[in-house]
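Example is below:
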Amino acid sequence: MPNERGVRMTDGRTTGSARAFELLEPLVQAATVRVHAPPGGYDTPRSHRTGPTWGSGFFIAPGWVLTCAHVVGEGGAAVRLTGREVGITFSAGNTTGTVTGRVDCVLPDRLEERRPGRHALWDLPDLALVRVLAPVSHACVWLTDRSRPRFDEVAYFGCTEDLGTPEITGRTTRLRGTAGNGAAIRLGDDDEIEPGMSGGPVVDLARGEVVGVLKARRQTGGGGLAVSVVQLRTLPMAARGQVGLYRRIMQAHDRYHYDRHLSDLDNRRTWTDVQGELPPEEGDPYAGRGRLTPGERTTLCGLLAELPPPGSSEVVRALVEEARGEEPDPLPPAPLSWRDGLGLLHDPPGGTGEAAAMLRYATDVSVAEYREPATPGADEELWDWVRATAERLWRPLRRELGERHERGLAERERRRRASTGRTVYGPARRSGGLPPGASVLLEVWAHGWEDVYDWRVSVLAGPAHAGRVTPVDSGVRATLAGLPEALQAPLAEGFRRCDTHEAAALLEVAVEPALFGLAVDEWVVVGGVPLGVQRPVVLRHPAGAHQGVPNPAGAREHPADREGGDAAARWARVQTGPLQDERADCIRGRPRSPATEWLTGLPDNTVPVHCRAADQEPTLGSLHAVRDAGYGVVVTRRPPPDPGASCAPFHRGLREELADAGRAEVLPVRLQNLRGRAYGADPDAYWAAGTGLVWEDPARPLPDEEPLQGDL
């Protein structure tokens, strides 16, 4: 039953969680908003004059409201959700204000074209970001940095009309698990989620941080689903040279709380203040010196927000691994900001203090190579704070951090001296070549003799850590037609991990030659643009025969696994050029099978070219033959629909392209540019449609584990 404050109490709440609710309730209510139809202007009418409630939301940064996509989809059948205007009613001290907001984006973006019917669940993560269209003063919540929630007591808030007037109310329950590969959180049935509460925040009572967004209630009674706020990391990636929306919002979030923490202009309690007053957790092994205090954590996040964002997700993961002492959780979504790295350092292994791990990480960030110059003094200020904070810990750690900082400064200076002649900030690579960092690997295998396929998406760490593979996701028994949809989310996650500020990561597609015609370069994953236009895409032979099914010509050694011999010599020679093309599967338009003696006798700078269907003879046999002859750079293509079309324009255009390129190391990027020209309706590039590049880089060895078998 409701208590004297109008908050419905639930049975079984501990004394600590009841106290936490009492402390956090005013902060959460101040940041939670009612979402409805847009007002007539920027006036502030009484809330009951703004029309029916569509749902709830909450401020996560100055000017930004987070809610559910299905909430902003209420009230009419708008053609597009993005760009739609909504009304936002919020509390500002003792008064209520209403402003207009505009939907900036929705997740997933496919909701713009494909929405469920009325009363049906919207696709996860079902989130919307709303930009407020007027400068207003408001409160913001504190968002968790943890990649996965703790299954503990939580409070959820949203707009209800228990007494006939819309108001923000809160209730408590427990988290019961996750769903949707961690994208959703299951809420217990301690109390009922009422209509209008969708889009409201879910708060971890033990830590005082928002972990979810209310999404749905069960039709049969209490409980329901919330969306993990970590799904904000799946916001669209920025164009090259720009800071993405997620990083901008989280930077504003951390600066807001940092400024409130430092300000002495008023005596209102902040999130940091309240987090410091929450009851201690029973049995916490890192209590006391083992954890940063709420004030230290807020300060650290604020100082990290003053630095340029990391160049890629892999940069964050590498620093976390160094600080944590083990590889961090590989599950998605990938960490995109320095703050996200802190979320991977909670509860480190071996009894190592959490505070120590975070200070090691902050030390490494202070001497990292940023993608752009930092604000003068920002990295020194971070290090000064680390050194001062370590004073309250123990002397060996202070000494360790000092030595760590000196080594990092020396290494950064060494990199800068070695970077003479190139941009200081960013990865080193020859002009027009591939970025040297991590790449995304897509492997597809035929499922026995059936017309279904198993797949796996991984991250290859790159030449600096050759052989290191981080799994992203895998699946079984997908049809060829169903592969693009099944792989959309895993590939998007892989790109988030590997893309850098300077370049889109390489996509390596490892399949048997019979699948070289798979049109991966034409798939659309994010941004509405084909993959082959967004990034370099190359083909790879799988590392070996899988599932006991040999290659058509028998299992063979992978060229990338050979040391010395023809493969190594051909790879080194073709990289430096000049390039010489040779038709491997046709002669003047007529099919042919190349002789082994002819292939092995060609110069090492030769690029064999195939113009016919990869899954048919003689091309299939030719692809195996050139692989056995040690060729690591091979061109293939998907023939045009018209079987009578001449292949001469393709060969002529490719010969000119190879001559102009001069060396093989630039071919993946040049082929991407060709696809972009064709996508932009350049008739001079139409000949390149369907062109594929086999790229057996020995510096990027493939994993040789066999895929999981399907259900028996």
